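Researcher: Please translate sequence to structure tokens.
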Amino acid sequence: MNKIALVTGSSRGLGKSTALHLAKKGVDIIVTYHRNSEAAKNVVAEIETFGAKAVALQLDTADTKTFDGFVGQIQHSLQDQWQTDRFDFLVNNAGTGVYALFAETTEEDFDHLMNVHVKGVFFLTQKLLPLLNDGGRIVNLSSGLARFAIPGYAAYGTMKGAIEVLTRYLAKELGTRQITVNTVAPGAIETDFVGGSVRDNPDVNHYLASQTALGRVGLPDDIGGAIASLLSEDNQWVNAQRIEVSGGQSI
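Model: Translation complete:
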């Protein structure tokens, strides 16, 4: 039986790339989406072209009150599609960004980022632990912005710093179940993050490329491929690590 991965926020961007790279390696996927069910269905169809199974479920990672219902949907899908009650990999990818200087960041912006990137990850992972196989893997998404500072991302970088600490605690506590927990921290990537500025603004793109050792900004497949590699059997001894995938940005 194929391994099964749950990738949050996988109807687009880095999550979609991760899901497709895993599917190419023979991993079945539980796709989650926030609003765009059509995009999620398209990802499921694309996954199936690689011979893998997939389902798409709606999830708002900012709303912890919905998590019990979501877990119930996961249990139903696992039984219906795979005749099992467990899955193997959890990739906490879903996220959003806010660009605002520290002095201009609102409490509403801060709370939203906290709910999506910290509280949501913390309690969704907690709820899913009984469904995660012993010997399974968790990958949390951080950001290069937790290491280097770019004005306008104080709140976002703070949340990702919290995720890196949480990752180490999870690795420590889940080691008895042989579950590894690592963080992948992307650098600047051409996605729709914060309005797609890295992808769509040539000045921003060129500036960030000039700050990167490999001379360009990243693409979604740079991250999706790295996460899929981290979840392979070749990396089963990697644990409690922050792995930056940035092409050498700001070094």
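Researcher: Any highlights?
Model: Strands lie at 4-7, 28-33, 54-58, 87-92, 132-141, 180-186, 242-245.
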